[in-house]
Amino acid sequence: MAGSNPTPYYTPTSKQTAATYHSPFLLKRPNLYSLVAVTFLCSAFYFTGLWQNRGSNSVITTSNIVHTTIPCFPSKNTSTNYPTSSKSTQKLDFTTHHSTDDGGAVTPDDSIKIYPPCDIKYSEYTPCEDPERSLKFNRNRLIYRERHCPEKNELLKCRIPAPYGYKNPFKWPISRDLAWYANVPHKELTVEKAVQNWIRYEGDRFRFPGGGTMFPNGADAYIDDIGKLINLNDGSIRTAIDTGCGVASWGAYLLSRNIIAISFAPRDSHEAQVQFALERGVPALIGIIASKRLPYPSRAFDMAHCSRCLIPWGEYDGTYLIEVDRVLRPGGFWILSGPPIRWRKYWKGWARTREDLNAEQNKIEQVAKRLCWKKFVEKDDIAIWQKPYNHHKCTEFRRRVKNPPMCPAQDPDKAWYTKIETCLTPLPEVSNEQDVAGGQLEKWPQRLHATPPRISRGTVNGVTEEDFQKDSQLWKRRVSYYKSVNNQLGQPGRYRNILDMNAFLGGFAANLVDDPVWVMNIVPAEAKVNTLGVIYERGLIGTYQSWCEAMSTYPRTYDLIHADSVFTLYENSRCEMEDIMLELDRILRPEGSVIIRDDVDILIKVKRIADGLNWDSQIIDHEDGPLEREKLLFAVKSYWTAPAAQGS
Known about the structure:
The chain has helices at residues 32-52, 131-134, 188-192, 219-227, 249-254, 273-279, 319-327, 343-346, 354-370, 392-400, 453-456, 465-485, 507-510, 532-537, 566-569, 577-587, 600-612, and strands at 178-180, 200-202, 205-207, 239-243, 260-265, 284-286, 301-307, 328-337, 374-379, 382-386, 497-500, 518-524, 541-545, 558-564, 588-599, 615-620, 630-637. It is of the alpha/beta class. Among the domains are: 174-400, 3-Layer(aba) Sandwich (Rossmann fold); 451-637, 3-Layer(aba) Sandwich (Rossmann fold). It has a seven-stranded mixed β-sheet with strand order 6-5-4-7-8-10-9, with helices on both faces. A seven-stranded mixed β-sheet has the order 13-12-11-14-15-17-16. Strands 1-3-2 form a three-stranded antiparallel β-sheet. It is a single-pass type II membrane protein. InterPro entries: Put_SAM_MeTrfase, SAM-dependent_MTases_sf. Belongs to the methyltransferase superfamily. Its main location: endoplasmic reticulum.
């Protein structure tokens, strides 16, 4: 650990020596005037101290102290004393070391609840997509693969272990092509998808050649083929969604074109496909289109993609394609390759009849037409449809074609456990057929800092253009401060996968956009204002999430987690603070970092749980100084793994 120990501040458990202060009054025989003077000075200093600390938690009881003299965190603004880690009084070490393995042991302390390691069988535990629990639910339309979270009495109170031999992932962009076998010890896909070039096993690592079921020559060449049909280079397409993503090679290779995709797939027989995507440093979530809306706002994505994703687009009255329409931006593209596209060439290899494939394509074409989509192009293995820029003409068409019907008045952005619709989500009204419904977006990268149309049109309750500009400046200053405390945050390669647990307008992510990282922006389901649509209009990505439940991702997903006022948000809710912290521990990589900003009283409680999780953590002052009640907790998760298997 780097840094030197600063001089401790006074605490109720420390004592001053007799030589600390030599007053001239102590060297003479006391008299009435000197006693009055001493009394006056003491009183003055006492009340002055109370006034200066009126906005901070200046009194910390002995129950909040880890039975030692507590030093301050060395930073330019530090002047207030808060508990630090019981195992360290030095500056936090944010660097990685890969191999220090103490078996997850935590130093005993009777005043702190210790969270023991879980059994190794939970190494890849995904609480809300648990394969065993899913078997209790309806298999119709794959509902059993949706989110089904454990009851409160089923929640684990232990720390999920990394597999033995776990190493920090390769740095981006090397990680796009390589991952350690020990981190995701599954060879199934190397056999099952060998011909399709998804993944290869090479000694102690996996290699990802970039292939896919419909692009065995590589995702890069496949994306080039798409780029010949629609413009991928002018900044008009920034956000994308890949349904049934495999190991997310499509999303991985889009990043070099300044297009960021959310890739999703269920936790199914294709073992660990989303886990591989995350290990590669590519945005991905566990998910499925079944009976619930996808957890994204309306008009979020500029492009949607399915490459042999096996979703029955034409079935159930086109319900799944109707959901794609909801999340697709006006003028956005839907790209389909694989069955049934080009069935005349591939029908034998797909082991299906020509009649069956032809009927499937006709169903898709009919659903797209009823959604007012235009068949943009079909060339070789790729077909592309385009959503209209508005519903000006579609309204007339809908009077003749009433299936699916237009949805009644509702919130099209509501998408947390919201039942999927079988009606067409109406676009915002326009004055003429040339207008873009909801407002025209700037091209990337200008759209990142331009006022999002949802704000400029006044559709985000309580957020004005002035608020947006102030928030942008605020986060520019805050991220700069973070980097001054954690110098690794500004070092390329230390972090790749980042989570913002309460993103609001996406200001934190916007100030990291020039770094080789990506940020999953969360708008909590309990947030007073739904701002996820704004985040997408800025060209960033995110999802809805209630932190009363586990996230739809694998253990060890994120390198850094940022939480702004999350614990205040859930202070009087059904959620337990320790369960939120245990979830953070589950989804944080060994030696991953955490930044939590909240009220000082809350942070002291969080700090004690962090100690019980064996994190190295320290509370420091707000960027505006010690008089702010809001403080920051910086933490680093310790490196530990499950023990080696017996006999290995």
